[in-house]
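the two lines:
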Amino acid sequence: MRTLHQFHGGVHPPTNKAQSTRTPIAVAPLPSKLVIPFHQHVGNIAKPLVQAGDRVLKGQMIGRPQDGLSSAVHASTSGTVVSIEMDVVAHASGLPDLCAIIVPDGKDEWVPLQGLDYRSASADEVRSALRMAGVVGLGGATFPSDLKLRSGKSKVKTLVLNGAECEPYITCDDMLMRERAAEIIRGAEIMRHVLGAEEVLIGIEDNKPEAIAAMQQAAATSTDHMEVIAVPTLYPGGGAKQLIRVLTGIEVAAGVRSTELGVQCFNVATALSTYRAIQLGEPLLSRIVTVTGNISDAQNFEVLIGTPVNELVALAGVLPDTRHYIMGGPMMGIPLPAATVSVVKATNCIIAASDKLFPPAPPAMPCIRCTRCADVCPAELQPQDLYWFAKAKEFGKAQDYHLFDCIECGACSYVCPSHIPLVQYYRFAKSEIWARENDKKAADIARERHDYRQYRIEREKQEKAEKLAAKEKAALAAKEAQTADGTPAADNAAQQKIQEALALAKQQAAAAKPQNTEQLTPQQQAEIADIEARRARIHEIAQSHVEHPKE
Amino acid sequence: MAAFFSPFISKPDSVAQIMLKVLLALLPGIAMYVWYFGPAILVSLTLASITALATEAAMLKLRNRPVAPFLKDNSALLTGWLLALSIPPLAPWWLVVVGTAFCIAVAKHLYGGLGNNPFNPAMIGYAVLIISFPVQMTHWLTPHGLGTTELTFADQLAYIFSSTLPEGVKLDAITMATPLDNLKTHLHLDEHVSDILNMPIYGRLAGQGSEMVAWGFLLGGAYLLASRIISWHIPAVYLGTLFAIAGVFHLVDPAHYVTPLFHWFSGAAMIGAFFILTDPITSPTTHKGKLVFAAGAGLLTYLIRVYGGFPDGMAFATLLMNICVPLIDTYTQPPVFGKKDGVSGNKEKH
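prediction for all of em together
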């Protein structure tokens, strides 16, 4: 039996998982339309490859990954692209993003698929295939998986498969493990192979005995060293850092890549997608979504990416007093900007929220420094201090107190007896610091440009002066040479010419008097005299004032 | 859609509930008080409660803050109770009123109200009263069975509100100095500890009656620990430090220094350890900081009791340590996740 480690803090919110695990995963029918955002992953937006009017097949790439950090986007079914437009998407910002609107033709006609034998293929080929299949982290972070399958400088010893699923309400991974354990294990084998890891540790919270049993059974069929480990149910034990800590004892600090410490972590659903992408050549077109909350028949669906949320929740019987939809769990999820947004690769759960189910928090009271927040913080921060600094806009201090180590798990807000929305304060502080960093960068660039301009002007001046000095030196040398020779050279004639020109200029200047001061009337002359007299007086007064302090 | 963000759920808990539990935890001590000293303490608790709530409401109004949610948070009530339990039960009514009003108006609201006061308001109130009205603050009730006469509840009320005693009864007959005060006076007269403790006002461990009140507070403190309102750090280290220092002195010179248990069960040590020093607003937030804070308070309590000019050292020890809290917090910041020494995977570069 493996000795497990602990992470600091954690909370036990009501799990509310039973509602959605009563029935097996159902396949959601084809929706009336698909709204597929080109930006569903961390990194650069995929470059659209289709236009309005194009017919697309199921699995056809409609967005090509651009530059390093990016992933591909595909048509989830066959049909017609009716438009490429900016649409509201399921993202915390609530901002619209570029989407392809596809109307399905109902035929569900596939592009030809071709798998890859990962054992004979190179690691690069496998990574490239994953990138082109649009496989990203399905735990919610949507980081392109191909980039996580690089070992980095140090060798990855342990591959951690995350089936903890610690967030309340969400059961998509639980149901996936119960029903499709074999495919997950096959995916894990591919990942282990590419990473060259020695062991695969599969962490599942102990409130999922069926999933643990299914995974154990499937893992036993593998020739790889695989261990399915029940971990204590404790939120946020499913955070990658926390699960790695529990299974291996390693603490991956903020800003450190886990691969540098010899560990890599993937969600179980990502392993399954990896298997399908590599073995079958199937791109990521659907995912399991838990539909729960204010719903009559909460359950999990296999949903095509791009399916509008309102069509999905209708399948499960959404209740009429639903006011919002939450994507993700109640601890870290985001409120959807509209019910019409579509399911994306990050959508693990849709919670229909009513005021009864999620009553608005009572008004916040002042912080009484009770440190319940510090007691539950898995990052071992001092949330009460961070709150104080964020509120006072002392962002430097907040950074000193490790603001950016905060994983925004919400445990602090959950336990706060004063009901202070702590995580909101941290998000605010982080965004302010980012904005300031950007401003500072812009200012730095501007200053650099200014400095360079100054330098250039200075340099040009210097070059001019140097040229002039060189010329004069040459002239002087010539003169000296000439006097030494005692023969007036051509230079002397030139000198004379210059003198003549100067004299002429002086004459002209003397002749050119201001036109309007000639032939003045006596009255004007008197006026001028008067003005001159006044000026002299003012001058005098001014001088006496200046001298005054001396006396 | 306003203010709808994660986390969408929260633990059913509130400041009011925490404060209420602390008030409940004071009940065993109060019960002992009534049992041994009569119901006068209930009068001062009532006076303090009314004054605390009235002052709180007035200050909130003045500061343009919502009155209802803060009145309901029970924090003013707690301050009032802690002050009432620190002053003689037979004190005149205005002493309780002035002290409580000062706690709430000055020590709490002038510093910014709930959560912002650097000093424990009840202890500020106690300090103000003992400096301004030392005479009234030293007339403690004699426990049952020790005085030559005993006042009825009506007599006690009459004395609290009009300072009149029944005919033929002198104040000295019904009041006494605290056991700590009495000990100090007699030690100054060069008497030995063993002789002093033979006086009838002393019980098994410390003062007759008052030691039982201390037991009551210890019981309440155990409840606070069990219900996780407070952590073990402050009470354990405070009592531990007090015990250790008193123990050393007692072992070296038992004729002039009382036992550590006497210190534990005298004065405000128990209520201080569990109810006053543990006030989260005025104590450090880090675990290490709590240890430093409690040890400092224990040391100061002993020094003031033995060498200081006041009968008890708890209040001033608390206030002196309150001053140090920001400093203690700054220098006791614990390492964060992944940035500790000795944990595999620590790659922190400085």
